[in-house]
């Protein structure tokens, strides 16, 4: 059974002044059995200012249902804005998108209808297999070729110059921490257990995951309202939010949400977002500091990074290979090559234009840089290297405490 989200536009003859969000259930029974429709809410007009805690929304790219917990203020480094040729292409693409959006009458997104309210907490095999190796840079650890060496002073200078974030001026934008509806998790092309951190259990640092969380840009929020007092299925929804009929939105944050945010701030905090477009494929990277693993011989610093690939063109492309370069403040420069990402070679088509995943990296220094390329193959046979914008890895004062809520261990340490 699949679900189809339809955005029914305003029709003059019916004098409808609000858009209805309708869930279409396709039932494979007799042909005479009509498709059943169920209204889940009404689409609201997008806001220029910040959305409030408790606002229900549809994700503009991935189509899932969610609710806003709290906002983050991030510096967005968009390298396309500093490239005149890319900027012109981006304007053309945006214009095309707007024209397409004006003629589109439906938003389709596959969603589930399970009501058990549970989500898987296990990471992808790639994340699990990164198993705390005491070394420099565990990246996308599936079968990949890795080389590492000590960078010379000349290499250090060229490397630093190549990834200097100061050459691109950051612009402040609003992102949101959100909960994802459990029913939609199996059907979206984004990891729904990607928020990970280092916890402290029995004096051992373990990898934990918080399921069903995502970071969403303001422009990707499509707000809607619902008369349902329990419109979202997630184990934290009732713990964090309560229904208030006279409020707008009618779901307000409880004290437990504020306490949870303060407790888990170290591994939830986002500050920088990096973007770059190559051949109509935009790559967005958000790095997060996870914590430090202390050993008698050394300290190993861990980060996770969330990457979204978006196809802004009309031809489908498939991700074939990745090529990473990781520079550590300790003076090492590592190269990692491999097939696909997280065990997949996703196809980015006009119908499913985006794919999002997370992975981890470790350094034996408190800071470093990463950059690289994705090898993409277009449906017409043309292959090209899509740039991954350079981003810095910066550590923070470590907090080894275990989160107060929703932290699920994903595996013990192993050397």
UniProtKB/TrEMBL annotation:
Residues 89-109 have a biased composition (Low complexity). GO terms for cellular component: mitochondrial nucleoid; nucleus. GO terms for biological process: error-free translesion synthesis. Residues 112-121, 128-163 have a biased composition (Polar residues). SUPFAM superfamilies: ApaG-like. One of its GO terms (molecular function) is DNA binding. Residues 275-400 form the ApaG domain. Signal peptide: none annotated. Residues 88-165, 389-415 are annotated as: Disordered. This is GH18595.
């Amino acid at each position: 059974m699949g679900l189809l989200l339809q955005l029914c536009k305003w029709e003059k003859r019916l004098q409808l002044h609000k858009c209805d969000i309708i869930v279409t259930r396709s039932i494979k029974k007799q042909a005479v059995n009509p498709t059943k429709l169920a209204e889940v809410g009404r689409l609201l007009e997008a806001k220029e200012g910040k959305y409030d805690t408790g606002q229900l929304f549809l994700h503009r790219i991935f189509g899932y249902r969610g609710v806003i917990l709290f906002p983050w203020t991030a510096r967005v480094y968009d390298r396309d804005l500093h490239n005149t040729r890319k900027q012109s292409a981006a304007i053309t693409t945006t214009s095309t998108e707007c024209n397409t959006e004006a003629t589109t009458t439906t938003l389709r997104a596959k969603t589930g209808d399970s009501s058990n309210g549970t989500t898987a907490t296990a990471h992808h095999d790639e994340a699990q297999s990164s198993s705390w190796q005491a070394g420099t840079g565990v990246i996308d650890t599936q079968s990949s070729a890795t080389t590492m060496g000590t960078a010379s002073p000349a290499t250090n200078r060229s490397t630093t110059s190549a990834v200097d974030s100061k050459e691109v001026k950051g612009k402040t934008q609003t992102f949101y921490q959100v909960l994802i509806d459990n029913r939609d998790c199996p059907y979206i092309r984004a990891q729904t257990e990607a928020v990970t951190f280092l916890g402290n259990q029995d004096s051992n640092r373990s990898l934990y995951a918080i399921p069903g969380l995502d970071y969403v840009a303001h422009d990707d929020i499509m707000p809607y309202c619902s008369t349902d007092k329990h419109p979202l299925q997630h184990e934290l929804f009732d713990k964090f939010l309560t229904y208030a009929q006279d409020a707008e939105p009618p779901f307000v944050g409880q004290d437990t949400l504020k306490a949870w945010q303060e407790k888990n701030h170290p591994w939830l905090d986002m500050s920088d977002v990096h973007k770059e477009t190559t051949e109509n494929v935009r790559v967005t990277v958000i790095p997060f500091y996870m914590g430090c693993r202390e050993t008698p011989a050394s300290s190993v610093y861990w980060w996770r990074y969330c990457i979204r690939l978006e196809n802004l063109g009309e031809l489908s492309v498939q991700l074939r290979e990745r090529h990473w370069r990781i520079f550590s403040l300790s003076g090492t420069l590592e190269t990692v090559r491999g097939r696909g990402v997280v065990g997949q070679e996703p196809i980015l088509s006009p119908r499913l234009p985006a794919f999002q995943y997370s992975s981890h990296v470790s350094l034996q220094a408190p800071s470093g840089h990463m950059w690289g390329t994705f090898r993409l193959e277009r449906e017409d046979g043309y292959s090209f290297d899509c740039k991954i914008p350079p981003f810095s890895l910066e550590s923070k004062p470590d907090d080894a405490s275990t989160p107060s809520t929703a932290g699920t261990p994903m595996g013990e340490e192993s050397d």
